[in-house]
Design brief:
With 217 residues, the protein is of the alpha+beta class. It contains 2 helices and 12 strands, in the order H-E-E-E-E-E-E-E-E-E-E-E-E-H. The strands form 2 sheets. Strands 1, 2, 3, 4, 7, 8, 9, 10, 11 and 12 form a 10-stranded antiparallel β-sheet that branches. Strands 5-6 form a two-stranded antiparallel sheet. Helix 1 runs antiparallel to helix 2. The longest helix has 22 residues. The chain starts with a helix and ends with a helix. About 8% of the residues have low confidence. The structure holds calcium ion (CA). Calcium ion binds next to strand 3.
């Protein structure tokens, strides 16, 4: 039993050291654009002074809404970054399209075992919304939602090798609706498999190894 504990401590120490050594390599410059408005993290337009958390509320091109972005300083880890865009809008009198984007740059290394990024989308709309997510300009996920509740999960395989950019796009279309029609949604881009799952898998494999060593004795 003592031997097992000793080995577990060594495995955990290795996991911790591996995690810490990867923290330094990151560059973040997250920006949300809402129509022609640009909101950079902790610029005057950002209502949330916390790093990695962007918030804009107000009127933009015929829409009134709240736009929130979370990125790696707030969610995820430097070696397994996540991005989350949350939008709630009402259309006003002009009822045109509204393009909302959220972009951030990161740098490798990624945690070992990550094979790509998953896009999770959920929400409800009175009109139509087209979603796209990109890794270095290459489409990872595309989804169209119209008139009602929606949700989807789309996984894409592909791991970057250097500094890389993740980008979320949502094109909101209320062109044929009355002036108080709502749309709200959440778009979450996260690495697959999730780091939590990786750690569990790692400890599970370590446990299996210990079991086999013990049986041989
Ligand atoms: Ca901020």
């Amino acid at each position: 039993m003592k031997k097992i504990l000793k080995l577990l401590v060594i495995v955990m120490a290795f996991v911790l050291v591996a995690g810490i050594s990867q923290v330094s390599a990151i560059s973040t410059d997250p920006i949300i654009t809402i129509g022609s408005i640009e909101v950079e993290d902790n610029s005057p337009a950002d209502l949330m002074t916390e790093a990695g958390w962007l918030l804009y509320a107000g009127n933009v091109e015929g829409y009134t809404g709240v736009f929130t972005g979370f990125t790696v300083d707030k969610i995820g880890r430097p070696d397994a970054p996540e991005m989350d865009l949350n939008v709630a809008v009402f259309s006003g009198q002009t009822k045109g399209n509204l393009l909302v984007t959220f972009e951030d740059s990161f740098s490798v290394p990624l945690a070992s075992g990550i094979t790509g990024f998953e896009t999770r989308i959920g929400g409800t709309t009175a009109g139509n919304v087209s979603f796209n997510t990109y890794l270095n300009g290459v489409l990872m996920a595309a989804f169209n939602a119209s008139q009602g509740a929606f949700s989807t999960e789309i996984a894409a395989i592909g791991v970057p090798t250097d500094v890389y950019t993740l980008r979320i796009e949502a094109l909101i279309d209320h062109t044929s609706l009355n002036s108080l029609s709502p749309t709200s949604f959440d778009v979450h881009v996260l690495p697959t498999p999730e780091p939590g799952t990786l750690v569990l898998l790692g400890t599970g494999l370590a446990g299996l190894g210990l079991y086999r060593i013990r049986r041989k004795k």
